[in-house]
Structure formats: structure tokens, C-alpha cells
Inverse folding.
């Protein structure tokens, strides 16, 4: 009995050893096939899932925010000038001015000529590119005539231009928002109110854009008010302050006074008719007294 029991135990022991070896060999595969820990799963899923959710949830159009104009606006300076030049010949000076304008890419905006007894005047309003303004002033000062007066001014409008640009950008953003609200308006009252807001914003935007265009024009093209002046020279025989002119004026004035006196006497003709009647009555009264 004992002899049979011992071989049986040996067989059971050998089978158990083989089974443990098989489990040891297959255990790494089992470990590797297990899912990763929960912490690693949370670490792998952050950005993509959030971005996908944000893309699916927020589908409404949003107005694009433009960069602040203050970051890109250059310095804005408006230059203006006034000059008065005495010349010997207006026509010759006008031709010289035309040549100078061509060299500096300038043009005449307005022109006014006035001829009086004492002088000739040619007034010009000239627009010239900003970069050629100083060269134009120097050309007029050197070769046209004698400068009687000159006044140059510079006005820095950068702050105003920046302020208007920022407000214009904000108004455009609000305008786009109101247009989006108008698409989703459900009642007639809301639509009317939103349309009124849109109209006000569009008017304000037009005014702001016009102001920016005006400033750009004044900055890009400077303005010069040029006056060409020629004094007329008179001889003593024909001048109003000479003896001949005074004698003629006196004779004319005396004749006018005499004519005025005669006309004044004639205007009293009703009283002149009474004089003969008074004389007749006086003589008759005197004759009757003598008798």
C-alpha cells in the first residue's frame, strides 16, 4: 500500500511543479495586457478633447477684432504756410511760380487776381506733397522776389488720428454685433430698435471715416497761401497827391459848388414870386399915404 502511495505522490508533485512553471512564463503577458492606470489615461486626454468640445459648442460667428490702430499709426503732422512776396512784374513772377510748382509736384487749388489803382495782387492757394514743402518755400524765398512776410506752422494731429481710429474700430465691432442680433431678432419691436442702432452706428462710422480722410489729405499735402504783390509807381504830374491833380480836383469841386448853389436858388422859386407882389403892395401903400 505504501509502495503504491509514494509513486502517486511523486506524480502529483511533478504535475504541480510544471503547472507553476507555466503560470510563471505566462504572467508577463497577462500583466502587459492589462489596461494602463487611470492617472495615465487622464494625462493623455487634455487638450484635444477640450478643443473639440469648444469647436462643437461655439458655432456662432464672432466679429474679428482688428489690432489697435495705435500700434501701426505713424506720426501725423500738418504743415501750413503764408507768404507775401513783392515782385517787379506779376506775369513774369507767375511764370516762375509755375516752373517751381512743376519741380515740386505741387498744384494751384485756387487763384484770385486783383488790380487796383495802387497795386496788383495775385493770391494763390497751393497744395504740395508734405516732403516737398520746405523745398517749395525755399524756392519762393530765393528766386521770385522780395519776401515781405512769411509764416510757417506745424500741427501734430497724431493723437486725434489715433483716437478717431480706435473709436472707429470699436464702432465697427458693435455694428457687426447688432447685425448678428438683427438676424436672430424674434419680434418686430426688437428689429426696429436694432435697425435704429445700426443706422446711428453707420452714420457715426461715415463721419469718422470722413475725418480720417480729411486728416490724411492735410498730412499728405501741405497748404501754402502765396500772395504776389506789385506796387504801381506814379509820376508827380499824374499822381493824385501831385499839384496838377489837386488843381483839377479844386476846379471840379468849385464848379460843382456853383451848380449846387444855382440849383438851391431855383428850389426857392415859390418865394421868389412873392417878392414882386410885396414890392407892388409897398409902393401902393406909400403912394396912398402921400395923398
Amino acid at each position: 500500500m505504501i509502495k503504491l502511495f509514494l509513486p502517486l505522490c511523486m506524480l502529483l508533485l511533478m504535475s504541480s511543479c510544471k503547472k507553476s512553471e507555466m503560470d510563471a512564463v505566462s504572467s508577463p503577458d497577462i500583466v502587459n495586457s492589462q489596461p494602463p492606470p487611470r492617472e495615465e489615461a487622464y494625462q493623455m486626454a487634455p487638450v484635444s478633447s477640450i478643443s473639440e468640445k469648444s469647436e462643437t459648442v461655439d458655432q456662432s460667428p464672432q466679429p474679428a477684432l482688428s489690432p489697435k490702430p495705435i500700434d501701426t499709426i505713424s506720426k501725423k503732422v500738418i504743415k501750413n504756410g503764408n507768404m507775401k512776396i513783392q515782385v517787379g512784374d506779376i506775369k513774369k513772377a507767375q511764370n516762375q511760380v509755375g516752373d517751381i510748382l512743376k519741380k515740386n509736384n505741387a498744384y494751384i487749388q485756387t487763384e484770385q487776381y486783383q488790380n487796383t489803382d495802387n497795386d496788383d495782387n495775385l493770391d494763390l492757394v497751393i497744395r504740395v506733397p508734405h516732403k516737398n514743402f520746405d523745398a517749395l518755400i525755399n524756392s519762393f524765398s530765393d528766386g521770385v522776389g522780395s519776401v515781405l512776410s512769411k509764416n510757417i506752422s506745424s500741427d501734430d494731429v497724431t493723437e486725434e488720428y489715433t483716437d478717431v481710429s480706435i473709436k472707429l474700430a470699436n464702432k465697427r465691432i458693435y455694428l457687426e454685433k447688432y447685425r448678428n442680433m438683427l438676424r436672430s431678432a424674434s419680434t418686430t419691436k426688437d428689429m426696429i430698435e436694432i435697425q435704429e442702432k445700426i443706422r446711428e452706428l453707420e452714420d457715426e462710422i461715415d463721419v469718422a471715416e470722413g475725418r480720417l480722410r480729411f486728416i490724411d489729405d492735410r498730412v499728405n499735402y501741405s497748404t501754402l497761401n502765396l500772395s504776389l504783390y506789385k506796387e504801381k509807381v506814379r509820376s508827380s504830374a499824374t499822381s493824385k497827391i501831385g499839384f496838377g491833380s489837386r488843381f483839377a480836383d479844386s476846379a471840379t469841386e468849385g464848379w460843382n459848388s456853383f451848380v449846387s448853389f444855382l440849383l438851391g436858388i431855383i428850389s426857392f422859386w415859390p418865394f421868389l414870386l412873392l417878392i414882386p407882389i410885396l414890392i407892388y403892395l409897398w409902393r401902393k401903400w406909400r403912394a396912398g399915404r402921400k395923398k
